[in-house]
Write a structure and sequence with these properties.
This protein is α/β, with parallel strands linked by helices. The protein is built from seven helices and eight strands. A five-stranded mixed β-barrel has the order 3-4-5-7-6. The chain starts with a helix and ends with a strand.
């Protein structure tokens, strides 16, 4: 009888843990914090996880009140009927600690946004003289077409994508909006001379590299391909008065004119700032590669 009560208590704990994971995923979706962990194109998968945890929770509830727990229609060699319920206390503590850690940290700690300190750990944002070309660097970010059509916040049809890219070439003012930011950045960085003299409007956080002058900073964004683990930082050099007065991680909205300069022996675009202002960090600070439909 004592063993049965102990086994039921174990199933009760497992049910609580399953429900806790379920509530954690629900919390991420209701608060919008899920976008701080993964690319929105994978949100459908996390919705599936919610239903799976709910199903497992219900199954576990029924197991708490199962009768004849020690009887099996089939018991393979080595089966001792307890399925780990009689494991030693230290072993149980280790097992539950491993499971509880992501739950405790997930509920107790607010997700933090990647910042300049993370960017510094990832290395330089601007190209170095030993780089073959900007194009080769940008290939790592998986810009442009995706063979799999996944509905998400950054989905564009072929026509929408083509129209926006034509607007980049034809418009005198380039607006670096989140949905097309990655593709515009690729085009401008790949051929900065083609956009010299055009006006640009962009938002980003301040990042600074060693060797920059007092009037220089990089207006940066984190590009998320799948999840924050693969985050890459991209940014445009900007020149403005008293740039050194803006500390790293300050969010700026900037308007200016695109020019070309040589930095670390590489030709790069630079924003000659005309107007700028400090802004609040956006609700969704990350940008994502464009997904387009291939017909």
């Amino acid at each position: 009888m004592k063993e049965m009560v102990g086994a039921r208590f174990q199933h009760f704990l497992k049910a609580i843990l399953l429900m806790a994971f379920d509530l954690f995923f629900i919390k991420l979706h209701t608060t919008g914090d899920i976008s701080k962990y993964i690319n929105p194109k994978y949100e459908n998968m996390s919705f599936v996880a919610i239903w799976i945890f709910t199903l497992l929770f219900l199954i576990q509830l029924f197991r708490i009140w199962e009768n004849n727990r020690n009887e099996h229609a089939y018991c393979p060699p080595g089966c001792n009927h307890d399925h780990g319920d009689s494991a030693s206390v230290p072993r149980k503590l280790v097992n539950y600690s491993i499971i509880l850690f992501p739950l405790v940290t997930g509920f107790a700690l607010s997700p933090s946004v990647l910042d300049a300190s993370i960017a510094a750990n990832k290395g330089t944002v601007l190209p170095q003289s030993n780089s073959n070309s900007y194009e080769e660097e940008l290939m790592e970010y998986e810009f442009g077409y995706d063979e799999e059509v996944i509905d998400n916040d950054n989905f564009l049809s072929d026509k929408e994508y083509d129209d926006k890219m034509k607007k980049l070439e034809q418009s005198e003012l380039i607006e670096m909006k989140e949905d097309i930011f990655a593709s515009y950045y690729e085009a401008i960085s790949d051929s900065p001379v083609n956009f010299q003299g055009k006006k640009i409007k962009v938002q980003g956080f301040v990042y600074k590299e060693k060797g920059m002058r007092g009037n220089q900073l990089v207006l940066s964004r984190f590009l998320i391909t799948h999840c924050i683990a693969d985050a890459s930082i991209i940014g445009l050099m900007a020149e403005l008065e008293k740039a050194n007065e803006y500390p790293e991680d300050t969010w700026l909205e900037m308007e200016g004119t695109l020019d070309v300069m040589i930095y670390n022996g590489v030709e790069i675009p630079v924003i000659k700032a005309v107007n700028w202002k400090v802004i609040e960090e956006p609700t969704s600070p990350y940008i994502y590669p464009v997904l387009t439909k291939i017909l």
